[in-house]
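Annex B. Sample input.
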Amino acid sequence: DRFDETHHGIDVIFGRRWGYHTYLALNTGYLQLSVPDEFKAVTISGSGTDRLPSLGFAFRYDTRDLYQYPRSGMRFDAYLAQTGFSESLNFVRYGIDARVYQPLLAGASLALRSAFDLSQGQIPVYGKTFIGYSERVRGYFNTRREGDNRAILEAELRFPILPIRYFDLG
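Annex B, continued. Sample output.
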């Protein structure tokens, strides 16, 4: 209850789309993270405040038929991000996320995903990756795991209970 983590920052993203399916972005940012004095040991600087400049890029190739509930196509994401540029604060995070959607009979589809988030350098406690929160495993919604790296492999057989419906309110 006494732990308050304060974030102040800015991110600037320069992106470009090549055609309908391909997107490339350059990210630059700065984050100042502060914790109360009694918890300053969790920061890399040891002062209770870490200043984190970052630079990275992201690539996406996306041919899915629907954004929310795809039945066919694929999506491939790759990223690389450097955070901190000093001896004491310097780590790299990179990863891929590949998803394939294959239609089957009677409106069913097979969804496959493999995602890897890897890191190099000393990862601060606030830079960990998680399974839980926004990246959940079906059937384990209340389970949370943290670490420097993360691997996710998923296979789903999807079938519609109700057809997709569109409503025009105009």
